[in-house]
Structures are given as C-alpha cells and as structure tokens.
Amino acid sequence: MSPRTMTWLILFVTISAVALRLSFMGRNANDLALEQATYENVRTLIRERYVRELSTDERQKIFYGSLRGMTSSLDPHSQFLPPELYDRLSASTKGHFAGIGIEINVEARGLTVLTPLLDSPAWKAGVQPGDRIVKIDGQPVSGMGVDESELRIKGHPDSPVTLTIERDGVDHPIELSMRRAIIQIRSIQAEEFVGPPYIAADGPKIGFIHINQFQKNTANDLDAALKRLEVQGLQALILDLRQNPGGPLDEAEQVGDLFLKDGPIVTLLFRDVVNQKRLESTREVRPGKTHPNFPIAILVDSQSASAAEIVSGALRDRGRAVLVGDKTYGKFSVQDVIPIPLGKGNGPSNSDAPNGNGDKFGALKLTIAKYKTPKSDCIDGQGLIPEYLVPNSHQQQKELLESRYRRHLRENDPREKSGKPTEKDPFNDEQLKKAVNVLLEKLK
C-alpha cells in the first residue's frame, strides 16, 4: 500500500470515528432533552391538577422520590440519599449515629434485617437477623426501599419507634417498640484468647478477635489488637467475621495488608468513563505492617458480606487462612458515595456539607464496580463456601448474638472486678469449636 493510500485510509477512519461519536452524542442529547421534557410535563401536571395544592415539603418529597426511582431500578445497592440519610451514612462510617442500631437490606422476601448491633435499642427490643420489616410506626414499607425505610427509622435520640416484623417460624406479625439512641459502634468487639470449654487452659494460645463491621480505623484497631495478643504469646488466630455486613473497601484492603506480605488482595471490574471499555484494577498489598505467619481460621456465615468477603476471599485464596462456618452473603459489588449539591433549599444544611457554604447536599450511592478475589471470578449473589462447612440455623444465629451480648455484659459487669462469680455462657458454638480443632491440627 502506497503512503498516499495509507494517509487517505487513516483520514477516512478518523473522520468516520468522529462522525460516529458525534452521532452518538447527538442521540444522547436528543434522549436527554426528551427525558427532561417528559419530567417537566409530569411535574407541571402534578402541581397544577393534583386534587389539592402541595406543600413545599411535599414538592421536595416528590423531587427526592423521582431521584430514588431513577437509582433503585439499577440494583439493590444503588440509591439516592437525601440530605438526612447522607448525614446518617457519613456519621455511621465514623462510628456513631442516631437510630436503633440495625443493618438492613432489600432481598427477594422484602426488607430484611442483616444484624442488630450489639447493645443497641434494636438488640434490646429483640430484633433478630433475618427478621423482615413490614411496617414502621404502622406505615407499610412496601415500595419504600432501604433509604426511605432508614429515614423513617431514624429520629431524635430517645424518641419512640415501632417495627412490625415477620419472622420465620412465627405465624403472626410481631410488634417491637424501642427508643432511638446515639449508636456508638466499636469495630473490634472482642479480643481474647480462646479458653475452656473449647481448649484446655494450658493449651496453645489461640487468639480470638471479633470484627463487628468495617469502618474508619478498623485496620488500625485490628493491628493494635494483634500486637497486644502477640506480646502475650499468640500462636494462632480466629478472626470472627460472622454477621459482619462489611464497610469501606480501603479498610478491607488495609486489613489484608496486615496478613499478606505482597501480591493481590482484590480485583475490581469497572467501566472506563472516557472510552466505556471494561477495565480491571488489581489492588496489591502495601507492605510494612504484615504480622507473623501464624495459622488463621476465619469464621463466616450467611450475614458476612462485602468487605468481610473481600478479606475472607483474599486470605483464603492466597493460602493465608481457611474459612470455617456457613456460606457468605454474596455482595461482590462496590459502591461509591458521590455528593450531589441541592442548593440552599429548605431546612438546615448538612452537618458535613462538602463546600462549607451552608448548601444542602444529597448523595448518589452508585454501584461502580464488581470485584473478584485473587483466585475466583466475580460471584455476586453466590457467596464464598468455606473449606470447613458448618451450617448454622436461624436459631443458632440468635443464640450467637445472645452469647455475644452476655459476654459484653460480663466484660462490663462490676461483679467481675469484685471477684464475684458471673453466669457461665451456655451457648455451644459449633463453628468456633471447629475452627479451634482446625488450628490445633495445624499447630501440631
């Protein structure tokens, strides 16, 4: 092919690509204009012809509802967060918020409780993992989604709220009343050595650390806990991630840094904003904080999700740990929270407004990526199956939560300091027992 022919060919291809791009942009512009016109038409009809005049708050609710509808059709985890819920989300990732202390999710059977937080109003009222919320203060939750439901559950500290729930094995709805409170979340809920009846008092020193959920500083708190146990002679570790709903991706990566010397932790699969191509990005270990290579067993169950699955999958796939327990939840997607300016609007500005000018901000919580563990494909919705499968029933999950609560009371019971005996924990944790036996074999 002559140079002149090659030049004309390159020019033709370039012009064709530009024309295709302009055509695509034109179609997008036409679609956007039609959508905007349709939205404005519906909005005008509601304002002019609805049976009564709408208040400012009602008009705002319609606006927020349109944004929620746009996002809720994507997947269960994408949603528009109005200012109040955006504030709640910001507070919860820092470890404190006002509410009743439950993690909820939209599932096929409805709005389902993942877990009540230890010592929270929901916990004390008797809310259990797997409970399906059907009403909040008498209002049906059908069609609300997670965001509106959380807004209705949220309120001022010490104000009352009543949940109507359905529970497997109970043939009638249950009403549970409680009072909202400022929820203080400790990421590390337990840090100790396993003792009787699971291991003899003079047996190997197997540490036990329970991570309730991933939040800011989880990795640093875990690092400090490991160092304290290591000083006392730690030989093996049980990391309890049961009923852990997850949290920030970067905290999961930093937890991986504590146990792996190098190599991959997780691979993200996403779409490039510029050319729309599918891309992969593998997050590698940042060396420097790796702890000694002691054996690890990770406890998981059907409520272990998101960041808990990233850590479990990474350490299992890299040969650093074994999984013990039940199949995990299966949330292998990543959400980004993008602040959305809403102007001055009505009511107070956000407590943490990004621009500091008193503007109101909502947020778009958007699924931006899927992820896969070092040796597995993306298995969103399927979950990880442990090497040592020890299924637990709904009743056993309830007993586990109650056992954790009793331990929490013992640790804060003044009788412990006075030397008076306290009630022994009757719960027989088969998953913990299996993890101990697996580690004892590895220590031989």
Characterise this structure:
Helix content is 37%, strand content 24%. By secondary structure, the chain is an alpha+beta fold. The longest helix is centred in the N-terminal third of the chain and has 47 residues, at 3-49. Helix 6 (218-231) packs parallel to helix 7 (249-259) and helix 7 (249-259) runs parallel beside helix 8. It starts with a helix and ends with a helix. The protein folds into two domains: 96-184, PDZ domain (Pdz3 Domain), CATH 2.30.42.10; 188-342 and 369-443, 2-enoyl-CoA Hydratase, Chain A, domain 1, CATH 3.90.226. It has eleven helices and 19 strands. The strands form four sheets. Strands 3, 4, 5, 6, 7 and 8 form a six-stranded antiparallel β-sheet that branches. The protein has a six-stranded mixed β-sheet with strand order 10-11-12-15-16-19, with helices on both faces. Strands 1, 13, 14, 17 and 18 form a five-stranded antiparallel β-sheet that branches. Helix 6 (218-231) links the parallel strand 11 (206-211) and strand 12.
Brief sketch in words of this structure:
By secondary structure, the protein is of the alpha+beta class.
Topology record:
Elements: H1 3-49, H2 56-72, E1 79-81, H3 83-94, E2 96-99, E3 102-107, E4 110-116, H4 121-125, E5 132-136, E6 139-140, H5 145-153, E7 160-166, E8 174-179, E9 181-184, E10 188-193, E11 206-211, H6 218-231, E12 236-240, H7 249-259, E13 264-271, E14 278-284, E15 296-300, H8 307-317, E16 322-325, E17 333-341, E18 361-372, E19 388-389, H9 394-411, H10 414-418, H11 430-443
Parallel strand pairs: 11-12, 12-15, 15-16, 16-19
Antiparallel strand pairs: 1-18, 2-9, 3-4, 4-5, 5-6, 5-7, 7-8, 10-11, 13-14, 13-18, 17-18
Helix pairs in contact: 6-7, 7-8
